[in-house]
Queue: 2 jobs
Job 1
Amino acid sequence: QVEFVESGGNLVQPGGSLRLSCVASGFTFENYAMGWFRQAPGNEQREGVSCISNTGTTYYGNSVKGRFTISRDNSKNTVYLQMNSLKPGDTAVYHCAVHHDHSCSGPNAWGKGTQVTVSS
C-alpha cells in the first residue's frame, strides 16, 4: 500500500530554516507528481504549499513563494521541502502527498505529517 515517512519538522526561531523529507513507497514514484500541504492549528482545511511534477516543474503557494523550494530524488523515492526565512505563520503540520498523476492535478494520498513550529 501507499506509505509516506515524513521527517525534518522541529521548533525553529523566526528567520530560521528547516528541510523536510518524505520517503514514499507503494507506487512508482518517478511517474507521479508530489506535493506538500500544511494544516495550521485551528484550521480544518489543508493549504497547498508546493508541488513538483514528475518532470520537475514546480509550483508554490503565494505565501511561500521565494522562501520555500521543493525538490525530488527519484532514485531515493524522496521529496524534499527546503524552508527558509520561516515565519510564525508557517507553523503547521506539514504533510507530503502523491498527486493523481504526473502533473499537479490534486492529491490522492497523504502522509501523517511532521510538525513545524516557528516561535521565539
Job 2
Amino acid sequence: QVQLVESGGGLVQAGGSLRLSCAVSGRTFSSYDMGWFRQAPGKEREFVAAMWRSGSITTYADSVKGRFTISRDNAKNTVYLQMNSLKPEDTAVYYCASRGATQQYDYWGQGTQVTVSS
C-alpha cells in the first residue's frame, strides 16, 4: 500500500520560513517524480514544485520561484519543500504527490496546513 505523509506545516509570520517533509512508503521512491501542490480556501489546487526522479530537473510555479526549494533524499524516501520569505498568499493546505509511468500524479498525501500571518 502506497502512503505519502506530509509534515512540517504550521503558523508563521510573513517573511518567515518552513520546511515541509513528505515521507513515502509502499513504492520504490527513487523511481518516481515527486511534486508539491497547494490549495487555498475557495481556490483550486495549484502546482507548486516538482523534482524528477533523477533529482536533476526541478520546476517551480512562478509565484514561488526564488523563495521555495524542492529537494529529495532517496535514502530516506522523503521529499522536502523549503519555503522562505513566506507571504500571506502562501497560506494553503500543501500536498505532496508522486508521478509514475503514466505521467499522472497518482498518489497523494493527506495535506499539511501552512498559515502565514501578516
